Amino acid sequence: MKELLIIAISSAIVNNVVFSQFLGICPFLGVSKKTDQAAGMGGAVIFVLTLSAFVSEVLYQFILVPLHFQYLETIVFILIIAAMVQFVEMFLKKTMPALYRSLGVYLPLITTNCAVLGVALNNVDKYDYNILQGTVNGFATAVGFAIALILMAGIREKIEYNNIPKPFKGTAIVLIISGLMAIAFIGFSGII
Amino acid sequence: MNKYAERIYNGIIKENPSTVMILGMCPTLATTTTLINGVGMGLSTTVVLVLANVVISLLRKVIPDEVRIPAFIVVIASLVTVVDFLMQGYFPALSQSLGVYIPLIVVNCIILGRAEAYASKHSVGLSFFDGLGMGIGFTLALMILGGIRELFGSGTLAGVQVMPSAYTPISIFVLQPGAFFVLGCLIAIMTKIMNRKKKTKAVEAATVCPSSGCTGCASSSHCGRRIFEETAKAGLKDQVKKTETMTNGGEQA
Predict the structure, then answer these.
(1) ipTM of the complex, rounded to two decimals
(2) A125 to chain B: which residues are within 8 Å by CB?
(3) Given A10, A103, B19, B58, which residue has the most CB atoms within 10 angstroms?
């Protein structure tokens, strides 16, 4: 239990996906203009990332390892993620229309969110987690992503009417702010 | 300019993936702690980009339109797996330091973006040069970023001591925040240059126009100003139509 908690805190805050591992930067820059959009995207990522971390870990342990097909992991994982995003979309549409309406538009974007594939690969290659640890890592990473996204959206709403030097408008100023936030997140590195 | 050279120019300057299109940010930020890492990442992405563009351009008539995205992903993922193993075999140190970012080339938006926007619609030769141009543009951006971060962050360049020994390295440059700061400034500089180019073009067009207006101008057929005025007029007409239909609808209701 303690070990799972350490994994969760470490991947949600200390090694935040966006600020320390540099995964999922594209949606982080793209969907952080409004807080409600950011919350929707964060929710969709939490949902898909937890599920995909679990499914890819199960497939790896029970199919790829016994057949010695580990070298196919990249192809298998990306196909699973793409298929699962489609599946989740159809499932939500049929069973939970309200949730689908709030998350729907963000679901197809998740296939190209590198945090999803990154977590699946890191789980099996870098950390060698078992199924439970891998799923917890997936969930916590997604929570970290949602935290970063919502914080950034709040800041961007604030600075929208500020007087920013012209060339810095848009992506450049967002990157500078991310840098400052990354400095703040380095401060967490002592807690584990 | 020849159309192949134009694709290369387009990739390096006009639509530079990192600084103008803002694509493929994850490897750009994560792997540029040193010059060598940046160039290594850039070159491996270039290889995948060129090969993927060629293969997808060859298959563009075979792949049905409905399943094209999964098909592209399978092609790209296979190429990335090959590149990953070649790197592990021939450049183990570089492969170690780039880590998970090599397999993550699969989800690099530049590659899927070029496959979807360019290679699936154009001939093999053009697609090859398009991939090459984009790849070189990406590699150059990563090289500059990696160079700056390594120079200020550890005082070396490609592992060779460049700064005088009295220089204290500013380690924030090689840490994560440094990546964001340097890239932010790079994008701002690029935006500034692009804006200035646009401005000089607009000024040129304005000074060339004769006093009699567009009707007496010899270059009116290809001039931006005439097109602008026409579209503005058309837009106005559309708006008038819209308001008319709206008021009509309101009356009916």
Answers:
(1) 0.87
(2) 100
(3) B19
